[in-house]
């Protein structure tokens, strides 16, 4: 599939109206990194660090992790990599951690909630990341943040990791960006101060959508029931874009929908300028973005909303078909 898009691999994802969309890839294993060159991605927008924890039968040691993170940065050859701290719980259970019995795991003890309640692992991971960066820029984001205090506490852990490394005399990152994933509707309504405190936000559309529609992403009975291009959801996302524009917060979108061409086009039309997706999606998404005018598509989205359409999909598909 990558061969099919080889002719546009080194071209920008620039729309007919002149908007440049940053296309990044999602990764989680060292084996994913060669795709960074092959796909034409501008960097890794989401590195899911839990995969390293899930493929072992014991807790990895700090030295192993920092070696691995350093190799990931080496392989990226200066392109940006955004590491997401451990996102476990819910559907991702570590074989060597005591399982919890929760009635609603998706709404339960997971991700940053575990990170803050059992800070040992998070501290080790942050230190491994800082040590791996050593003189290079570092970008880290925390999953599943639902309120300001969680982000503040996580960032304080990052400050402590930096301080520890400084005392040990190790070289610090040349630049540090600490962001949050926006995966719970509560963050869409967080105070402006939150938007200013984070260095960036990344919308985790898979989780955000399941909470927006109250439809479990793992439950076959309901997971396909609500369309991402549902007018209510797009309006909600557009409001987040507007808030980020107002506060000057860099925003990206890293859920699976970023890699679906029709969805990606609509996300760009409502103002997203950075999308992170599986490597094989970069070509198809870039190809469609290069043929469309976002102003036209944006107008269609608003007309669909005004008509009272449930989903923008039929109107968007009509428009996109005309561009192929
Ligand atoms: C998401 O929720 O959209 C996301 C990118 O994180 P994950 O799919 O790993 O939960
Ligand atoms: Mg998520």
Overview of the structural elements:
By secondary structure, this protein is α/β, with parallel strands linked by helices. 44% of the residues lie in helices and 14% in strands. It contains 14 helices and eight strands. The protein has helices spanning 35-39, 50-54, 62-76, 112-117, 119-133, 148-167, 185-188, 192-197, 205-212, 231-247, 261-269, 279-289, 294-307, 313-321; strands at residues 22-27, 43-48, 80-84, 137-145, 175-182, 201-203, 251-253, 274-277. It has an eight-stranded parallel beta sheet. It binds phosphoenolpyruvate and magnesium ion (MG). Magnesium ion is lined by residues 143, 183, 204, 206-207. This is phosphoenolpyruvate--protein phosphotransferase. It is found in: Cytoplasm.
Secondary structure blueprint with pairings:
Blueprint: E1 22-27, H1 35-39, E2 43-48, H2 50-54, H3 62-76, E3 80-84, H4 112-117, H5 119-133, E4 137-145, H6 148-167, E5 175-182, H7 185-188, H8 192-197, E6 201-203, H9 205-212, H10 231-247, E7 251-253, H11 261-269, E8 274-277, H12 279-289, H13 294-307, H14 313-321
Parallel strand pairs: 1-2, 1-8, 2-3, 3-4, 4-5, 5-6, 6-7
Helix pairs in contact: 3-5, 5-6, 11-12, 11-13
């Amino acid at each position: 599939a990558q061969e099919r898009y080889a002719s546009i691999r080194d071209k920008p994802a620039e729309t007919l109206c002149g908007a440049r969309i940053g296309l990044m890839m999602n990764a989680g294993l060292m084996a994913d990194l060669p795709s960074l060159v092959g796909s034409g991605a501008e960097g890794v927008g989401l590195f899911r660090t839990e995969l390293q924890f899930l493929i072992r039968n014991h807790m990895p040691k700090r030295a192993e992790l920092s070696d691995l993170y350093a190799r990931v940065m080496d392989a990226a050859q200066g392109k940006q990599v955004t590491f997401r701290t451990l996102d476990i719980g819910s559907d991702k259970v570590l074989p060597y951690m005591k399982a919890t019995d929760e009635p609603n795991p998706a709404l339960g003890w997971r991700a940053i909630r575990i990170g803050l309640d059992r800070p040992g692992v998070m501290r080790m991971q942050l230190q491994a990341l800082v040590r791996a960066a050593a003189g290079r820029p570092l970008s880290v984001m925390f999953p599943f943040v639902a309120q300001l205090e969680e982000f503040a506490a996580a960032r304080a852990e990052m400050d402590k990791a930096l301080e520890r490394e400084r005392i040990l005399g190790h070289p610090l990152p040349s630049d540090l960006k600490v962001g949050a994933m926006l995966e719970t509707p509560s963050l869409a309504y967080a105070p402006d101060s939150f938007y200013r405190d984070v260095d960036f936000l990344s919308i985790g559309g898979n989780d955000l959508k399941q909470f927006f529609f109250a439809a479990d992403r793992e439950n076959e009975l309901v997971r396909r029931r609500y369309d991402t291009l549902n007018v209510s959801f797009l309006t909600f996302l557009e409001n987040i874009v507007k808030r980020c524009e107002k506060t000057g917060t860099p925003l990206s979108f890293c859920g699976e929908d970023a890699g679906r061409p029709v969805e990606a086009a609509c996300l760009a039309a409502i103002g997203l300028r950075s999308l992170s997706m599986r490597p094989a999606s970069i070509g198809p998404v870039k190809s469609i973005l290069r043929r469309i005018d976002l102003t036209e598509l944006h107008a269609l989205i608003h007309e669909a909303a005004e008509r009272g359409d449930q989903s923008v999909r039929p109107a968007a598909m009509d428009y996109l078909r005309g561009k192929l």
